[in-house]
Amino acid sequence: IYLTSKKKFNKRMKKIFNSLKWIPEFYFILVSVLWFYLTHSGRDSSNTMINFPAILMIVIFHIQLFLNDQLLGKFLASVIGFASIYMVYAVITEYNVFSDFNYNTQLNTLKIGNVILLNLIMALWMFNKYKPSEESKAETQISS
User: Fold this and answer.
1) What is the DSSP letter of 116?
2) CA distance 84 to 62
3) Cα-Cα-Cα-Cα dihedral sign, residues 4, 5, 11, 14
4) How far is CA 94 from CA 47, 98, 105, in A?
5) What does pTM read for this prediction?
């Protein structure tokens, strides 16, 4: 009885881990949809601007979900990672511009900093996911 329940448990855990590996892609799609929504529905209700970079990110991450390409995954993770590092640098350099670092400014900085940090973590997770495994390295060495 113990072995069969352990096999069932292992099978369930594999299903859970297989679905968890797509979290970075779904996160970036969700952030892109939110970015599109926030730029499209601004304070002015007659805003007809279309956010093409957000649409492009949504399409590219959907392509990555369907193709599961290792090179595209590494490229996307690298671009998002470098952009997040640049944004950290931009937020740090903005401290010189703030004349009054009041409560609202602190709160906005904290919100933006959390989003940037989460983007960096998801980019690192995504980059690590598409890192070639030892088995694939051995297969390429044998075939050449």
Assistant:
1) H
2) 21
3) negative
4) 29, 7, 11
5) 0.74
In sign, the C-alpha dihedral spanning 21, 26, 28, 31 is negative
Neighbours of 84 (CB within 10 A): 20
Torsion angle, CA of 33/35/37/42, rounded to 10 degrees? 180
Angle of helix 52-67 relative to helix 70-94, nearest 10 degrees, comes to 140
* Chain segment 32-80, per-residue pLDDT in tens: 998 888 777 665 555 667 788 888 999 999 999 899 889 999 999 999 9
Residue partners of 98: CB distance under 8 A and separation at least 6: 105
Which position has the token pair 């983007």?
119
What single-letter amino acid sits at 4?
T
Asked whether residue 112 carries a pLDDT value surpassing 70, the answer given is: yes
